[in-house]
Each structure stands twice: as C-alpha cells, then as structure tokens.
Amino acid sequence: MFNGYRVGWPLWRTVARLGVTLRFRAMVHFDEESKTFWADSPDIDGLIAAGNNLPELQAAVMDMASDLLDLEMNSKQVHARQQYGIEGDLVHA
Length: 93
What we know:
Layout: E1 5-6, H1 12-17, E2 22-31, E3 36-40, E4 48-51, H2 54-73, E5 80-86
Parallel strand pairs: 1-2, 2-5
Antiparallel strand pairs: 2-3, 3-4
C-alpha cells in the first residue's frame, strides 16, 4: 500500500507537482517543565510547533507543514500527511 512520498527523498518536489501526497516525519517531544508537547521535523526546515496536548500539536504541525511546503513549492496544491514519532519513554509511531 502506497502511503505517500516523503519530503526530502530524491525528486520529491517533482512528485508533489504531479499531485502525489507527501509525507514527512515530525519528532514529538514533551516538555516536563511546562507540561506541553512540541515537535520539529528532520524533513521540513523550519518546522517547529507546540500544543497543550497531542491533538492540538498534530493540528499545529499540519498547519505549519502546509505553510512551509506551500512556500517551498510556491503552490497551494501540495497535500501532506505526517508520520510522527514520540521521543522519550513513549513509543515511536
């Protein structure tokens, strides 16, 4: 089952222009002091998002990723979905 082409792989911009769904990794972290979640991405430069819980963080990551990929592609036709892992004592997804 094909679940998208990852940002950063060879020719990912060309594949995206053809309408193929992109996927990317977001690494999720938990800040003990503030009791909030934050994420960054090894695939999308500049992606940093925060949220009070995982659903809020996921929405923030997708909004930021869409904006950054739109800027990168100079287009509003990029469709992305995230693949994220949780660092620390939690399980990677």
